[in-house]
Structure formats: C-alpha cells, structure tokens
Amino acid sequence: MSNIFIDPAVVSTPPIDASREEIEEWLGNLQVWLKEALDADDNWLHSVEVTKLLREKGQFPSSEALLSWQRKYKLDINPRLIERDINAFFRDENHDALEKPEDLIKYKYEKNIVKYDSAQNKNNIALWHERLQRIWSELTSLPSLGDIAEIHGGIQYKISLQDNENKLFSEVPSDGFAKGLRTVTDDFEPYITRSSIYLNMDPELMLYEAYKLPWDKPKVIVNAVHTGTGDRWLIAAALDEQGLVCTQNFHGIWPTNSVPIEVIAALLNGPIANAFLSINRTSRHNQVRVLQQIPIPKFEPWQFHQIVSLVREYVVTREQWLSQPEHAKYLEGSCKGILRQLQEEILGLYKLSMEAEKELITYFEGYKRLGPVPLTQVDPSPEKRLYGTLIRIEDVRNEGDEKIVDAVVMGWGGGYPDQIIHFPLTLVPQELREKVSQDSYLRAKVNIGAREEKDLVFEDIKLAPEPRQELRDRFA
Fold first, then answer.
1. What are phi and psi of 439, to 5 degrees?
2. I need a surface site. Which of 157, 171, 331, 382 has the fewest CB within 10 A?
C-alpha cells in the first residue's frame, strides 16, 4: 500500500464569480475524489496546517459557500453531506502527514510518500515533480488545449437512470431522442465510435444545461471515465461528424480556431496528453480542468495536412478491418503502421530534447495503449530516432584547449552528402581517441533525421573497420 500526499489546494473553492459550469465541474470532481480518498486501498494523507491556511483565506469548502451556490444556481446537491465528507478526511488527524508544511521534504524520504511536491506552470496547474519533470519543464511555454478548443461534459439526468431505463434510453430512433453515447465500452476507441444509443433530450429531465451544447457540430469525443486497467493510457479521442450527444461519461471538444478535429484527436491519443493526464490525475475521471491544460505544439498550418491525412487513412482502414474479418491480419498491420507514424509525427511536433523523449518512452514501456491495436511501445520521433551509420573523419584539429573532429556523417546532410559537421573529440571513448585521424572511420548510432547539426546525437561510438572500396568511392 502506498502513502499518497494530497495537496489540500485540490479542494480549494473556485472564485466567487465562477460560472455555473465551473461550479458543477468542481463539485463533480470533488465528490469523486473524496470517494477515492476515503475508500481507496492506498493511504491518502494531507497536512492539517495547510488546511488551516486555506480556511483562514476563505478557500476551503464550507456549508455556507455550498449553500450560496446551491441557491444561486439551483444546484441539486446536499451541502451538509458534502461538508461532512470533506471533514471526514481533512479533519482526521490519522490522515495528517506532518505538523509543519516545511517538513514535507524530510517526510518524503522517511515515510515513502509517492506524491507530494508540485510546481505551477503558466496555466496554474500542479505538475508533480516525481515523474517526467524534465518533460514538463521543456513544455511550459507551449499553449494548452484550452487555447484552441472548448471542452464540456455530457448531459446528466435529474432522475435515476436505474429506475428509468426505458424512459431515458432507446435502441431505436424515437421522437424527442437523439443518437449518442451512454457509457464507455470497448466499442469506444481512438478515432472511431462503433456503437450508439438514443438519448431522451427532454429539457425537463435534464439536471444541468449541457443539452444546449452544439452537439450537432463536428467535434472530438473523449472518455470522461478512465478505461482499461493501466495507469498510463487514460484517454481515447474519437472523431464525431454525426452529431452524437453524450452523457456525463464523455466530454465533447469543439475547436475554437482553425485546428482540425483530426489534429485534436491525434494530440489526445498521443503520449504527451496521456502522460499529462496520468501524472495529474486525482480521481478516476479525466477532468475538464486538466484536459484544458494539456500542452499542445505550436503549429504551422502546413503541418496539419499530414496529420489529417494519416487520421483519415486510419479511419478508413479500421472500418475495413471491422467489415472484412477475412483480411483482419493484413488490415491490423496497416492500422498499426499508421498509428506508429501518427504517434511519431505528433511527438516530433513537441520538439523535446533527446533526454526528455527517452524519459517519455520509458514511462510508457510495456503499457498497452487504448484501442484494438496492441502497441506497447512509444517510438522516437523521426528527428530523434537513432540509426547505425558510418562517420568519416576529415580532420582532428586543436581549437583552444580542445580537440575538434571534422567529419562527414553518412546518411545525413540534407542533400549534401559531404557536409562536414564538428564535434569534440571527448565524445569518442577515451581508449579510441588516439586512433581517430584523417580518413579513419567511426561507427555510431546517430539521429540522421535531425534537421540541423546542433540537433545531432551520437551514441555507442566505436572504431569502424575500413569500408569497402566501392563504399569509399560512393562517398568520395
């Protein structure tokens, strides 16, 4: 069983001028999180001292604040029950990790805390230091998903689903019903939706006003509740041009600028989005608040075309796979290839350093991504992928106190096969340095897809045997 420290700021109340939608989302996330904290097998901890500070600032949930919102927005909640559950956790000294907030670092090492420390990015969301911090540091300056899209939860009914199945849902078209998605099943997968049901859209049955959202417009649909058993791949994003309506088990995502829905779906199905959700989760839900802060690359319009084409190719191939089981093996292989290429394209857009990208790849190692294609490995982006190649040494010269190697990397040069690059001799293992001289050859793993010399990475450098004459003539 793990000890997990939770920052009390997670339950910090929204600002006084928060919208109804923001209050509803906060209340939903709060109640889901409290259930997790009070019922989970892990030992969840907090700091009584930090809780006191929030109370003093008026940012801790109270029955007065909850009652005020209930009256203002006519919310269907029981403020006193919510306050009871909050107090059951945050006033229980058995859950108190320590007496003083400054003791956190010491406590981390003595008591095996899994999560405790957080930093704030430009969007004011907590990013846990414990994992992938290099990645988030490199992505801090990027825009977020909320900058290019609106994200909203699905419809909720104010009557019991269990007791009103026939009234609320239909397998066939009916007056007043709309085609949509009810629960997250295995049929919900990246890029496509395979099944649907009809939902009663009577405004009198609605708890909130999500039924007024533009469900008929093109959008991306993602699961609001986690699927599968892993803790890495938490979200699948499907394209919707059918006008599907969703229940609260899903979120709808509508572009607010020129970014195509295919690109948004590809980003959300990618490793950066899933890692971000995995690191920042505090419940079994993909929260709108966290989705809005997912880092996205800075796009050039021309970069959309390749991603849109790959997504559309995948959708067509996947549908053929479903309709032509006799060709399943071939079509599955095609889908797998397209997904790999999509993943590489998306990852490349983030322009992570080699070290950060390796950290991301390691994080997902052995975890199966959502969907029908059994991918358990994140591949490097094209510019970071290492290939074995030969390096022809042109010269070894002194530059100040350092020896510099002038060389030609075979296979790299952007159309100029004899382009000379420069690197310090210290990159070569010490026992080989005396053997590096003009016209000698090295063998190494190099990211020959790199666009610029400064992005080249050399690994596993060895002295190479003299190449055959025809190869030397080719690169002469």
1. 70, 5
2. 171
R_g of the chain, CA atoms, integer Å? 27
DSSP 242: S
What pairs with residue 221 in β-bridges? 238, 252
Q: Which residue, of 350, 365, 380, is where some domain finishes?
A: 380
Residue pLDDT, tens place only, 349-389: 998 988 888 889 888 888 888 888 888 888 888 777 888 88
- Structure tokens given for 448: 């020959």
Question: Which residue, of 89, 116, 143, is where some domain finishes?
Answer: 116
Contacts 24+ apart (CB under 8 A), 420-425: 420/394, 421/453, 421/456, 422/453, 423/456, 423/458, 425/396
Residue 334 CB neighbour total at 10 angstroms: 17
Confidence of residue 129 (pLDDT cuts 50, 70, 90): very low
Looking at the fold, whether 151 and 276 belong to one and the same domain comes out as yes
Specify the CATH number for the domain of residue 393: 2.40.50
How many residues make up the chain in this entry?
Answer: 476
The two beta strands, 441-446 and 387-399, are antiparallel
pLDDT in tens, 229-238: 557 898 999 9
Give me the DSSP letters along 319-343.
HHHHH-GGGHHHHHHHHHHHHHHHH
Which residue segment(s) compose the domain that 133 sits in?
121-380
Phi and psi at residue 340, in whole multiples of 5°?
Answer: -60, -45
Residue 316, C-beta contacts closer than 8 angstroms, at least 6 positions apart = none
